[in-house]
Specification:
Blueprint lengths: L2 H22 L7 H5 L2 H39 L11 H31 L5 H10 L8
Length: 142
């Protein structure tokens, strides 16, 4: 067996043993400090952070693709020689409004992903999620 496979299997075995130990001691009363050092919580936080990062990247690339498609269609439709009387102002302002709304939506979704990403590493991750859903996603005053 190659050395890389042996080391990855030993890391996996160590992680499985640590998770088994976490779950076998689940009957005991746990404190928040002991949960923060738990390998299970670390694994879940890493997994959720990775998923949130992927979702943010996918949404950002979809928004960029949509911008490009809109503006390529715009440049295909405008005439070659423009004068002020032949400028398609309604179409221009419709494209401007769509772009502005997409920027607003994209920034809000990316902000939501950032808050969820940072809350995945918090001791009480659902507190930030509840604040986001209720629209009070600003940091706690105290």
């Amino acid at each position: 067996m190659p050395p890389m496979m042996r080391s990855s299997r030993s890391v996996l075995a160590t992680l499985q043993e640590s998770i088994r130990h976490d779950w076998s001691s689940a009957g005991r009363r746990r404190t928040l400090a002991s949960l923060k050092t738990s390998p299970t919580l670390l694994l879940l936080a890493t997994w959720h952070s990775y998923g949130i990062w992927l979702a943010a990247c996918v949404f950002l690339s979809m928004a960029g693709n949509l911008f490009l498609r809109w503006y390529i269609d715009w440049y295909k439709r405008i005439p070659r020689s423009l004068t002020m009387s032949s400028f398609p102002a309604p179409a221009f302002f419709a494209l401007f409004l769509r772009s502005w709304l997409l920027v607003g939506l994209t920034s809000e979704i990316l902000r939501f992903c950032y808050i969820l990403f940072s809350e995945a590493w918090n001791g009480d991750p659902f507190c930030g999620f509840r604040r986001c859903l209720l629209g009070i996603a600003s940091p706690d005053p105290a």
